[in-house]
Amino acid sequence: MFTGIDEVDWASLRHAYGSAEDVPGLLRALASPDAAEREVALDGMYGSVHHKGNVYDSTLACVPFLFALASRAEVRERGAIVELLVSIGAESAGPSAQAAVRAGAEAFVPLADDPCPGVRRAAAAALVRFLDEPARVLELLHRRITVERDEQVLPALTAALGLFVRRHPADAAGAVELLAAQSRPPHPPGMRLAALGQLALGAPERLPADLVPTAVRLLRERSERRATDLDRREPDTLVGRIRRLRPSDEEGSYLLRTLHRALDDRVADRIALLVGQLGSPDAMDRCNAVRMSAGLFREWRADFGAPVSLIGGQLGCQEDQLRDAAVSVLAELFELAAPAADELHALVIARPDLWVRTWERGRPALGGPLKALARSGDPRAVPVLAQLLAGPAAPAGLGFEVVRLGPAAAPLAPALRHRLGRLPLDSPEAAELAAPLLAALTALKDPAAVPEVLRLLRGAPDGLGAREALVGQAVRALDALGTAARAAAPVLRGLLGTRHAALAAGALWAAEGDAGAVLPALLRELTHGRSRSARTAAEQLGRLGPAAREALPALRGLAGSGRVWERTAAAQAWWRIDGDPDPVLPVLRAAWAENPYARGAIAECLAELGPAGAPLRDLLTAELAAARRHTVRPGGYGSHDIARDERLLANCRTALASQ
Questions:
Q1: Closest Cα partner for 473 from 504, 509, 428?
Q2: Crossing angle of helices 501-512/466-481, nearest 10°?
C-alpha cells in the first residue's frame, strides 16, 4: 500500500497549514485497525491536505496511495477513501487534480462490485466522473443496479445514472430508460422518488404529468415503510420512542432537495410539493419540508401564504428539531411570516423560556419565536418586549427588531431611552450596545430621546474610539427627530469639520432649516470627501431642494462618473434641486441595470418623480413581473435580502401608482 511513500520529499510539499511532512502519518493511519485513529486521520486529510476542497501539491502526491488503500480489502473506511478521491478530482479542484484521479480510474471498476456497501455506494459516482468510456460505464451501472439489494447503495446508483445523463447526453438514452423504469412500480417508493428527481434534472420530458401528487404519495408510502422498519428495530423504551420521533432522515432530505433543484423555477409546483410534504403525518417529512422551504422563499417571489401557514402549524409540535426549524425559517421572512403570526404568538405566550437565547459565550440574544413575531410586524410582540426591557439585561439586538413594529412600538420608547441613558460611555462595547437602541428610537422618532442622544455625543471619550463609532448612529437619530432636535444644533455645528460632516449637516438642516449654515460643509464633502462622504453629501443636498442650486455643477459631474451609488445619489439630488427629470432618468436607468442593490432607492426616487418618471415605467413593470428575487446570487443569501426585495416590490407598486 505504501510502496514509495518514503521516497516522496513530503517536507518540501505543502498543505493548508504549511509543510506536508505529517501526511505520511495520516495516510498510514487511514489503514489503522483502530477506528478512532482512522477518524482522526480522515479529519486531517480534509482539514489540511484537502482543506475546504482545495488541492495542493501534497494532495496530488497522496492520490496513488489513496487508490492503493481503497483497493485493499483489509482496509476499513474504504468508502470514505473513495469519497475523498472523488472530492479531490472534482471539477472545481482544477485540471491537475482531475487528471490525477482520472489516471487511476480503472481502480473504481472492481470497487463497484465490492462486498462493502459503503465502497459500492461511493464507487458509483466515481465511475461516471472519471472513467472515459460512456458505453462501458453505462453497462457497469446497468449490471450493478440489476443485482443490488442494499437500500443505501441503490439511491447512489440512481444518482449516478442521472449524472451520466447530464454528462453524456449523446449516450444518455439507455440511462434515461433505466431511470424511467425505476420511477414506476414495482420499485419501492424511495427508489421511485430518486428516479423522478434524476429524470427531472436530466430528462424532464419523461416525467409524469401528475409529478407533484405522485411525489407526495411516494413520500408518504416511503415514510410508512420507514416507520414500520423503525418500530421493528427500536425497542419499546423511552429512548426507542425518542429515536422514532427524531426528524433525522438524510436520504429523504436528499431526495426532496433533488426534486426541488430540478423543478427550479416551477415555483407553483414547488409550493404544491411543500404543501404536500407539510401535510405529511410523518415528522421527518415535515421537518425536511420546513428546511427545504427556506431556499424557495429566499430565491423566488410568489404567494407563499399556504406553506407559511403550514410551517406555523409545526410550532405546536413536541419535537424540538421540527419546531426550531420552523422558527428559524419564519424569522427570515419578516412580514411574509404574517400567516403564522397566531401560532408564533401562542408559542411565545406558552414558552417564556424561549424569549431569550443564551449562548455559551457572548450576551443573551432575542429568542427565535419572539424575534419572528416582532419581525412580522405583529403588535402582540410589544408587551413581551416591554417585559424584557424592564429586566436586568435586555437581549442584544432587541432594538433592531423593534424597528419592524413601527408606531405600535411607541410604548417601548421610555424603556429604550432609560437603557440608552444607562450605557457606560467609557466601555469599548458602548457603540455596539447603543446601536440597536438608537435604531429603535430613530424609527419611533421619539423627541424625548434628544437628551440621551446628546449625552452620547458629548460624553463618549475619544481615547477608546467609542465616540467615533457612536457619532454616526447618534446623528442619524437626531436627524430623524427634525426640529425636535433643535437643542442639539451647537453640537451638530461642531461636527461640521469632522468626517461626520455630511451627516451632521443633514441633521442640522432638519433641526433649523438654514441652508447657509450647512451648504459649505456639504459642498466640501461632495467635491473633496471620500466616496461614501460624497454620496452622503449628495443625499443631504437633495433634501435642501432649490436652496442647494450652487451644488448643481458638482452634482452633474458626480452623476456622470464615480461609483454606482454615488451616481445614483447625485442624480436623485440633481432632480430634487433642479426639477428637470430628463438628464437624470438615463443615469437612473443605467444604475438600475448595473447594480440590483440600487433598485430600492431608485424606485423610491421614481415614486417621488410621479408622472415625470413614466419613461422608466418599463423597469418597474419588468421587476414586478420577475419571478426571481432581485438580489439572488449563487449560494443563497441572508434573510434581510427577503425584506429588501419585498420593500423593492412595494416601492415599485407605489411608483407605478404615482404615474
A1: 504
A2: 30
Q: Are 301 and 642 in contact (CB under 8 A)?
A: no
CB 302 within 8 A of CB 268: yes
**C-alpha cell belonging to residue 410:** 411607541
CA atoms within 13 A on the CB side of 100: 25
According to DSSP, residue 449 is labeled G
pTM listed for this prediction = 0.86
- pLDDT tens-digit series, residues 194-230: 999 999 999 999 999 999 999 999 999 998 887 655 4
CA–CA separation, 558 and 556 (whole Å): 5
Q: Count the neighbouring beta carbons within 10 Å of the beta carbon of residue 318.
A: 8
CA separation for the pair 341, 361 (Å, rounded): 31
The SS3 call for residue 365 is: strand
Looking at this protein, which amino acid is placed at residue 186? P
Cβ neighbours of 601 (radius 10 Å): 18
Question: Which amino acid makes up residue 386?
Answer: A
Ramachandran region of residue 116, left (φ > 0), alpha (ψ -120 to 50) or beta? beta
Are the C-beta atoms of residues 201 and 211 closer than 8 Å to each other?
A: no
In Å, the largest CA–CA distance within the chain is 87
**Is 227 in contact with 282 (CB distance < 8 Å)?**
yes
pLDDT at residue 253, as a whole number: 83
Write the CA distances from 522 to 398, 509, 564, 570, integer angstroms. 34, 11, 20, 13
CA distances from 39 to 15, 48, 66, 235, 531 (A): 19, 14, 15, 29, 51
Euclidean distance between CA atoms 112 and 248, whole angstroms: 28
**Helix (DSSP H) and strand (DSSP E) numbers for the chain:** 36, 4
What pLDDT score does 202 carry? 95
3-state secondary structure of 330: helix
Please report, for residues 401, 568, 595, 615, the alpha-carbon distance to residue 588 in angstroms, rounded to integers and kept in the order given.
Answer: 32, 6, 11, 11
List the chain residues with pLDDT less than 50: 230-248, 464, 638
Residue 314 CA to residue 325 CA, distance in Å, equals 9
Residues in the chain: 659
What's the pLDDT score for residue 237? 44
Asked if 211 contacts 205 with a C-beta cutoff of 8 angstroms, the reply is no
Q: How many beta carbons lie within 10 A of that of residue 371, not counting itself?
A: 26
Could you tell me the CA-to-CA distances from 389 to 438, 441, 649 in Å, in that order? 14, 14, 34
Contact between 398 and 389 (Cβ < 8 Å): yes
Q: How many CB atoms lie within 10 A of CB 52?
A: 7
* Phi (first) and psi of residue 530, to 5 degrees: -70, 170
What phi and psi, each to the nearest 5 degrees, are found at residue 564? -60, -40
End-to-end Cα distance, the chain = 76
Give the C-alpha separation, 49 to 179, whole Å. 37
